[in-house]
Write a structure and sequence with these properties.
The chain is an all-alpha fold. The protein has one domain. 72% of the residues lie in helices and 0% in strands. It is built from 2 helices and no strands. The longest helix has 19 residues.
Amino acid sequence: MPSSPDTTTAFLAALTGHWHRNARLPAPPGLCPYQHRAAAGLALLSHRLS
């Protein structure tokens, strides 16, 4: 069953918030995966909401 655009945007906002919060936590040496995910999620949200 396809989801509505609003549902998709809400899910993306929640997931991006999770990534953004984790990006601010101390990362293990040599590993910062959440920073890239948070930046990508914010860019996609900006595009969807404009």
